[in-house]
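Async update (no meeting this week)

Hi team, since we skipped the sync, here's where things stand on the single-chain job. The sequence we agreed to prioritize is pasted below, unchanged from the tracker. I ran it this morning and attached the output directly underneath so nobody has to dig for it. Comments welcome in thread, and please keep replies under the output.
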Amino acid sequence: MEHFVIKGVSGPVPVTVFENASPTARTGRELCRYLELQCGTAPVFSVGKMPNSGICIGFGSPDYGTDEFELCFRGDSLFIDGGNRGVLYGVFELLER
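Output:
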């Protein structure tokens, strides 16, 4: 069984979608579903403000093109950002790795 580990997080990995990024909320739920299938443990999903650590979706710049995305680490968090479809592409890129 594989494990998904983020520094500073014990237990299930939090997946947080930025509260003003409503179109990406479904993307966050899909990520949680697939991480549970791959790792055997369900991440904790929430919509809100930026957490101290975990996976953060939609917290970046609004300047991305529709299909652009970025995966990057900042501190103890993995950020998935991008345009409307780009965030979804970023989630799939993470899952394929």
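Quick observations from my side:
The longest strand covers residues 69-74.
DSSP finds two helices and five strands in the chain.
Reply here if anything looks off.
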